[in-house]
Amino acid sequence: MAGRWIEANGLQLRYDFTKGRRAPIVLIHEMGGTLESWDDVVLPLSEFASVLRYDQRGVGLSEKVPGPVTVEQLADDLASLLEALSIKEPVAVVGNAVGASVAAAFAALHADRVAALVMLAPATIMSVERREAALRRIEAIERHGVRAAFADGSSDVPARFATLRLATDPMGLCAMWRMLADLDMTGLLPRIACPTLVAHATRDTSRSEQDIARVAGMIPGARMTAINTTHYMAMETPRLVCRTVISFLEECGFQ
Q1: What is the pTM of this model?
Q2: Domains, the chain, ranges and CATH?
Q3: Residues linked to residue 125 through DSSP beta bridges, in sequence order
Q4: Is the pLDDT of residue 237 over 80?
């Protein structure tokens, strides 16, 4: 099992750090995932740069803290984690889905710590319809548990992710779902100043190309790309994800 634990922002976070020849690429997992969500991309990325991944608060083997969670709080957790690990140089931040929102919040709120940002299938705001569905999902998790709440299934959920999600703490998962239900990053995205790539998964049933284009359009100078994959990019098509990330960081002159 990968990981060590360190005190950051008042709680214990599990992390895994692979030293490479450049400043770290920080990987932030999706809702329901853990640092294991990135297992298949760590080795290829570590041949290019150092790689840091971690379980977010209330998730995986990081400390479980009661109460609500905000995207700003999660961004501050990352800032504190970097400080605790004595990582001083600007990092590249890569996030998937809700993890992409945390990465973007970190880039907006801790601009001096970020050299580049990659957002994979980002979730940054919810429509009224999606919010109502999210609230129903939260109620189902609280009443019946994780397995029953997702028994309706989804054809594009990899078996490995479904297994990871089953091990998720229901309280922590509900806190993340509530954060997503109330998420509105329209005030944060325009504050991002670093080179940014926003990636659309062409076989994503959760985020349309229009959704991703709107996110990219709110970030000054952001580029958008399409990847032939599903919402769970790093699990489904790790080689494509690695090529996309490394190519972008090389273009940015990431050191």
Answers
A1: 0.95
A2: 4-124+186-252 (3.40.50.1820)
A3: 184
A4: yes
